Amino acid sequence: MASNKKIATLAGLAIALLAGRASAADNGWIDSASVEFGSGSKVRIGRLAVQKNWDAQWFASNGRHLSGYWDLSAAYWRGTAYRNVDGQHQNLAVVGITPVLRYQRDDKLGWYAEGGIGANLFSELYNNSDNRLSTAFQFGDHIGIGYVTANKWDLGLKFQHYSNASIKRPNSGVNLLVASARYQF
Fold it and tell me: Where is this site: Critical for activity (predicted)?
C-alpha cells in the first residue's frame, strides 16, 4: 500500500511539472516535454519528462555540433515476475535527473545521436525476473538515436541500463529498449 502512495505522489509530481510547463517554458526553465514507453525482461515502463537545453556548442564542424540538455523524469515501472514468480506484479515509481550529450545538426533538425548518465531514485528495491537491484539509488545510462522534424517533434529510440555500479550487491542491472516522443516549445 505504501508503494501505491509513492506512485500516486510521483504521478502528482509529474502532472504538476507538465501543468506548469507553459509558464516554465515562457520563463525559459523548460524547453521541451516528452513521453516514453519501454520494455525489458518482464517489465514495462512509462515515463514523463521535461528537458532544458544547454546553451553550448562544442566540436562544431560541417554544420554539426555536440551539445546537450538536462532531463528530469518521473516513471512508472510494472514488473510481471516479482521475486522471479511469473504473474506476480511489482509496481515502482522512479524519479531521475540526467545530463545528456547530443551530437546534432546546427539547426537541431534531422538525425542525432545521444548518450547520458544520470541519477535515479526508486520507490522500492527492484526484484523482477532474475534481476535484483539492492539499492533504491540507481545510475541510469543510455545511448540512443532519433530524428527531429521541422514541426518540433523529436522521435527517438534508446537502449537504457540501470545499475548501482556495484555500490551494493546483488546488482544484476536492468536493460530496457525505450521509444520516446518529445515536443519542443
Answer: 164
